[in-house]
Amino acid sequence: MTTPLLSIHGLTRAYPGVIANDAVSFDIHEGEAHALLGENGAGKSTLVKMIYGLVKPDSGSMSLLGAPYAPANPSAARAAGVAMVFQHFSLFDALSVAENVALGMEAPPPMRQLAARIREVSQTYGLPLDPARLTGDLSAGERQRVEIIRCLLQDPRLLIMDEPTSVLTPQEVKILFSTLRKLTAEGVAILYISHKLDEIRTLCDAATILRHGRNVGTCVPQETSAREMAEAMVGASFNAPRRAGQAAGAVALEVRDLSLPAPSAFGTALRDVSLTLRQGEILGIGGVAGNGQDEVLAALSGERLTEPDTIRLDGAPIGRLDPNARRALGLLAAPEERLGHAAAPEMSLTENALLSAATRERLTRRGFIRWGAARAFANRVIAEFDVRTPGPETAARALSGGNLQKFVIGREVLQRPRVLVVNQPTWGVDAAAAAAIRQALIDLAAQGAAILCISQDLDELLEIADRFAALNEGRLSEARPTTSLSLDEIGLMMGGAHGMEVAHV
Amino acid sequence: MGTINPELLLAAVIVAATPILLAALGELVVERAGVLNLGVEGMMITGAICGFAVAVNSGSPALGFVAAAAGGAVLALLFALLTQVALANQVASGLALTLFGLGLSSLLGQGYQGIKPPPTPRLDLGPLSDIPFLGRVMFSHDLMVYLALGLVAAVWAMLKYTRAGLILRAVGENHDAAHALGYKVVRVRVLAILFGGACAGLGGAYISLVRVPQWTEGMTSGAGWIALALVVFASWKAGRVLLGAWLFGGVTVLQLNLQAAGFAIPVEFLSMSPYLITILVLVIMARDKSCAPASLGRIFHASQ
Question: Does A345 contact chain B (CB < 8 Å)?
Fold first, then answer.
C-alpha cells in the first residue's frame, strides 16, 4: 500500500457541551474520491474545518504524504495543497470574478494575468467564466464554478467539497462530475460531503460514515445501497415515505397568468405563472435556486399582493388579501429561510407558534394572548413532529436546522390547512428528519389538503409529488405527472445546463 | 453682487471643503470595511480641541495636527473596543461616541476660548502660485489642503488597485466569507476604524486651526454629520466624496458672501442652503444604485 495523501489520526474537537469530533481517523489516497457521510450535527463540517485550518483540533494528528500536517490557518492549508469549495458564505457579490478568485489565493498575479489564467483554466475544465463579471449577477451554477476555479488555480492535491450539488440542475451535476473525474485521474484527491447518497454512489470510491462525532464505519459506495448508507448514518432503520395513489379532488388553488416585477435588484420577476392545485394532490415545483421560488411563495402566502383574480382559493379571488386573511381561509405557507423568515430567531417556540397559528387555532381572545393555549399548541407540534428541544420556551435560534425545520413544518401542518405551500421543506435536514417531514406532507395530502412543494431536491419531488413543474427565470412550465418523467426531461424543463459544456480535453 | 471676488471665493471654497473632505474620506474607509461609525462629529470635535491645545502650547501647528489625528484615533479606539471586541451595537455606540466627544471637548477646551492659535503657514509653491487666477485658487494653500487631496487619490487607488484594498472591501462585503478564507476580519476593521478616527481628528483640527481659527464649544456644528451623509450619497466612492465636499464648501462660502452682500433672502434660508443643496444633488447622483457594502453595520462574530 502506498503512503496515503492525507492521513487523519484520532482527531478530537469539543465545543462547550458537545463533542463535535471524537477520535476520528481515516485515510485518503491520491486520486481517490472519498465521501464523508453523516446526519446534520454529526461533525462533518468541524472535521473539514480542521483539515482546512479554520479550527484547531484538541487532540489527534494529521499527516500529508507522511509528513506531519497541522495547518495554523487556511493559508497554511492552501500552501500545503488543500483547497475547499464551501457550501455557502464564501463569495463576495459586489466583487468581480477575478477579485473573488484573487482573494482565495496566496500570492495572486496581477489582475490582467489572473484574468487570462482564469479563462485558460475554465476552458480546460469546461467551466466557462468571464473574469470581469460581477459575482452577484451569476447563476448558482456559475457561482460554484468561481469557487472551483479558485481552487484549481492553486494546483491542489486535496479538494474538499461541501454539498456542491445542492444548487445545480442534473445536467450541471453531470458536468461537475466529469470535471471531478478528470481531476481524480490527474491524481487529485477529493473529499466529498453530500446528503445525496445516489451521487455518492456514482462518484466516490470510498466513504467514511460519522455519527455523533464518531467514525462508525466505512463502505464502498458502489457496493452499498443508498438505504444501507442512510441507516448507517442514523444508526437505526427508518421507513422511507410511502404514499398511496389516490384520485385528486376538486380544484383548491388556481393561479392564472400571475406576473410580478422583481422585488429587488437580485430578485426574479414572475412571468405568466399559471397552475392548478387539486385537493389531495401534491404538486412539486423544481428549478435551480433564484429562478422565482421565493417570489412564488411570497405571492401565494400574501406577502406580496397581486391582482385579485390571478389567485383563487376555492374559486374566490384572494390576490389582495394579506397573509392573515389567507390563513383564516386555510391557505398556509412555510418559507425556505428558517431563521428570520419562517421563524423569528430570538423568540421562543411558543411565540413562534403563536405568530403563525393565532388565527386558525384561536390563540388570542379580544386582542389578548391565550398563553396556555399557545403553549399547548407548541407542545403538540413538538410532540407530534419529534422536535428535539428542552421545551417550548427555547429560542428558535437555539434549535438545530433539522429540528427547527420540523417545528416550522409541523406548526403549519397541525393547523389543518386546506392548501399548504412549502419551500425547501427538507433543505439541510438529515435523512431521518427529511423522511419524517415528507411523510407528514404525504399524510396531510391523504387527508384531502392540497400541497404545493417547492424544492431544489429532485429526488424529493419525485418521491412525494403527483405532478411536477419547473421554474426557469420566473416562468413555470406545464405540470406533468411525475410517474412518466425521466431525469433528462426534468433537466430540460429546468432550463438545461445554463450554457455549460462538457469538459473537452 | 459686485463685492464678490470669484478668485477669493473659489479659494475659500477649497478651504471650507477640506474638513468634511478629510472626515468623509476616513468614514468611507471605515464603511467600506463594513463598520458604521456614527461618531464622526465626536471624533472631529475631539480632534479640533486636541489639535488646538497642542498647537497653542507648543507653538507648532504641525504638532497640533499630529495631536488631532492621535486624539481622533484614541476616541475611535474606544469605538473599536466597544463594537469589535465587546460586540456592542454600532449605531448606539456611534451616537454615544458623538455625545461623549462633544462633552469631552468642552471639558478639555476650558481656558482655551478667545485665544488665537499659531498661524498655519501657506505652502510656498514658487512660480505655481503666480499663475494668474489658478495660482490664487489652487496653489496658495497650506499643506493640509494638499494632504487631503492626496488622500483622495490614495484612498481611491488603495481600494481599487491594491491587495490590501481588496481585502478591506471583501471584509466589508461578506465578513463570514472573508473569515472562512482566513482573513482577520476584526483586525482589518479595527485598523480601518483607527484610520477613520485620525482623519476625522485632522478634519476637526483644520476647522479650529485654519478655517475659523479659534476654539469655541461645538464649533464643528454638524460637519461630522454632513461627512456621514456625504459618504452614503457619494455611493462609497472617493472621487464623488471630493465632489460633494466641494459642493458643500461652495454653497457654504457663497451663502456667507451673499449674506455679507446683503442679499434679499432671509439669513436662515441662506444658512440652511448648503445642507439642503448638497444632499439634494447627491441624492440625484446616487440614483445609479451603487450598493452599500453588504456587511455594513452588521456585527461579526467568528462562531466556531
Answer: no
CA distance A230 to A236: 9
Mean pLDDT estimate for chain A: 85
Q: Nine-digit cell at A145?
A: 464554478
Write down the architecture of domain B6-285 according to CATH. Orthogonal Bundle (1.10)
Is A350 in a helix, a strand, or coil?
helix
CA pair distance A286, A459, nearest whole angstrom: 10
pLDDT per residue as tens digits for the range A134-162: 888 887 778 888 888 888 888 889 999 88
Contact A89 B163 (CB under 8 A): no
Chain B interface mutation, best of A75, A92, A147, A264, highest count of B Cβ atoms under 10 Å: A92
- Do the Cβ atoms of B167 and A103 come within 8 Å? yes
Helix A140-152 and helix A111-124: axis angle, to 10°? Answer: 110
ipTM above 0.90, yes or no: no
DSSP secondary structure of B48-65: HHHHHHHHHHHS-HHHHH
Superfamily name and number for A251-502: P-loop containing nucleotide triphosphate hydrolases (3.40.50.300)
A181, A335, B9, B240, B285 from B254: Cα distances, Å: 70, 56, 7, 21, 22
Residue B115: Cβ within 10 Å count: 11
Give the model confidence (pLDDT) of A274-315 as tens digits: 999 999 999 999 887 778 888 999 999 999 999 989 999 999
> By three-state DSSP, how is residue A129 classified?
coil
Spell out a b/e string for A387-415, using b for 16 or more CB atoms within 10 Å of the CB, else e: bebeebebbbeebbbbbbbbbbbbbbbbb
Tell whether A371 is within 8 A of chain B (Cβ). no
Chain B contacts of A78, Cβ < 8 Å? 182
pTM of the model: 0.72
State which fold the A6-234 domain adopts: Rossmann fold (3.40.50)
Q: Where are the beta strands (DSSP E) in A330-377?
A: 331-334, 364-365, 368-369
Chain segment A229-259, per-residue pLDDT in tens: 877 877 766 666 666 566 678 899 999 999 9
Domain limits, chain B: 6-285
Q: Are the C-beta atoms of residues B219 and B212 closer than 8 Å to each other?
A: yes
pLDDT, tens digit, 9 for 90 and up, residues B29-50: 999 999 999 999 999 999 999 9
B32 chain-A contacts, CB cut-off 8 A: none
Query: How many of the other CB atoms lie within 10 Å of CB of A186?
Result: 10
